[in-house]
Amino acid sequence: MDKQQKLKIALPILVLVMIVVWGPVIIGSGSKKKNAGKTNNVSTSTSPQGSSADLIVLARSNERKKARTSYTDWGRNPFALAESPKASVLEGIMWDSRNPKAIINGYILGIGEKVGSGVIINIKQTSVTVTNGNTEKVYHLGQ
């Protein structure tokens, strides 16, 4: 048997093996153990609200099972940031007598918008006043 005849025999065998191995991956079929045997029968209704049974079925289908462990929460998250948040920094003021804007922590904000836990109450050409309900803090440019 010469080389050409061997290739004519080997090539169809290799193609068949590739189809058997890669066919389910490419087509998307294969074992789906996660939802095997489970079907979510959700009826569609013409009303915009739907029924409460439909909502219960949808909610249960997305629930995660709680892990079984003897772990008890010790009260604080070691990966959480410290109690005091990052201080607000006044980076710039875009002055317009009718609609002034301030750039604080990279955000462009106007009067009445929130900054952390406070609200901007006044914007002047060189300063911004923020109130926290009972206290007022004035941020000046260049500080």
What structural keywords apply?
143 residues, alpha+beta, four-stranded antiparallel beta sheet, three-stranded antiparallel beta sheet, 2 helices, 7 strands, elongated
Q: Approximately how much beta-strand content do the residues carry? A: 15-25%
Structural class, by secondary structure, is alpha+beta
Task: Specify Rg, calculated over alpha carbons.
Answer: 32 Å
How many beta-strand elements? 7
**Overall average pLDDT:** 76
Individual helix count: 2
Distance between the termini: 88 Å
Please summarize the sheet with the most strands.
4 strands, antiparallel
In percent, how helical is the residue content?
A: 10-25%
**Order of H and E elements:** HHEEEEEEE
What is the overall shape? elongated
Query: Strand order across the biggest sheet?
Result: 4-5-6-7
Low-confidence blocks of residues? 42-46
